[in-house]
Please model this.
Amino acid sequence: MHSEHPKVKQFFPLITESLSKGLNALSDGESNYEASAIEKYAQDIFSRVSEIDNAIKSMSIAIEYLKQKNYENSEYSFSEHHTFHVENFLLRLTSVVDRSYLLAGSTMVMENHIIEKLGGKRKVSSKLLDFSPRSEAILRKMDDAIEHLRSPRNKVAHQAGYSRKSLCVLQTIENSEAESISVREITDIMSYDQIKDAVIDESIDKFETVLPVIDNLVEKLIDSLSFVYDGLLQLHITSKSK
Model:
């Protein structure tokens, strides 16, 4: 997980200090507490990275389910399960990229209301061009890596749902009476299990390869931004020693 990255982990003492203040305030019956600027920053960065980790973990779980041929003890059909996990993967995939932009924005101490609203990615990219061209190039690589999946993702996001010809064939079989003429015409060519295998292979081929690519680019993004984290922590240490 990227929250275990050494450049992120170095913020843990500050996060612990801030959480201790919060717990002490809570035990004293207070709803608010004062955290230092560097403590708030550490929490923001860790939260952004954790959000990315959660999305990647969900994608990994989706891949596991997409490899399953049977969903025993479920009232839902194979095609309904498969569609659900495909749609979940697609939505989580774009959220990893979106959250990576947010991480970059928070690293540069950009306001949340600016980077989280529509057009925020463009503002982050624009500022990164001067702040860290290497980081901006990595984010563009992320966008390029998922470009071929944007169309199906957008259909899912706009309630059109995920659909492929082979998946539609499965749905036709599942929704028809077992001995109907239309079903027999299909299964005489390919059995239901063979079509299932084809649907699984198609999804895995399309989705499994993009996950390690995105995961690696997140790692590179954190590396590229680490000069900021190192610099701020050094300033913090220097100021405390005075």
